[in-house]
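[User]
Um, C-alpha cells okay?
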Amino acid sequence: MTASADYRWQQPSYLVQAFTQVALRNEYSQQGRVVRRWEKPITLWLDHKVGDKSLHADLVRMHVTHLSSLIQHPISFVSSPEQANLKIVFTQQRDWIEQVGQLFGEKAVKVMHGAVCMANFRVNSRYEIESAAIIIPVDQARMHGKLVTCIVEEITQVMGLPNDSEEVYPSIFNDKTPESLLSGLDGLLLKMLYSAELKSGMTESEVKPFLNKLIRKWQNDGTIKTANRDIRSGELYPLLGY
C-alpha cells in the first residue's frame, strides 16, 4: 500500500467530510445536523450490576482520562447517580432490553437488534449535551470480544460524535476498522469538535470555515502528521499491546 493511500484520511477534504459524517449526522434520526457537545463539566457515575467492578472502573478511567486530555474538557467520577450527568451501566444480557427501555425509551428497543452495547445523549434547546447514558451487557460484549470496544466507542460517541460511518476510516465509528481504540483520525475529530472556535448549535456551513482554518494550522505545525503516534499516549494502548 502506498503512503498516499495509507494516509488518505490526513487530507484536509477528508478530515472535513469525516467530521461532517460523524459529528453532524445521526444514524437513528434526523435530529441535529448541528454541532452537539458538552459545554459544562462531565460528571460520571458507574452502575455495576455485575462483577469485575474494579476492571471495568479501570478501563473507563483510562479512557476518560485520555479523552479529557484530548478535548481539554473536565470529566470526573462521582459517587451517586444524583450527581451524575453521564451514567454507565454494566449489566447482563438477560436484563438488557428492560434497561434500554427504562433509560432510552421504547423507540431505542426497536433499533437495538444487532447492537452489542448502546448509548444515547440528550441536548437542550441550544444543542448543548445535558446528559448521557451508556448500557453495556458485559457477558454479551465479552462473547463478541468487544468489551473494550464498547467502553471506548460509546463513551467517545456521547462526547458529541454520535454517528457510525463506513466512509470514515480508520475510525472506531467504522465497524470495518480492526482496532478497538481511538485512531489518529478519531483524535483529530475530537479535537475539532472541542476546538474553541466551535460552539453547540453551529450548522455545517458555519463550521466549515473554522475547520478549514484549523486544519491548515495543523498541517503547518505537524499535528496531522503525528496524529497516529500522539493518540497512543493513552494508558489503554500499551495494555492492549499497541
About this structure: Strands lie at 42-48, 75-77, 86-91, 118-123, 129-137.
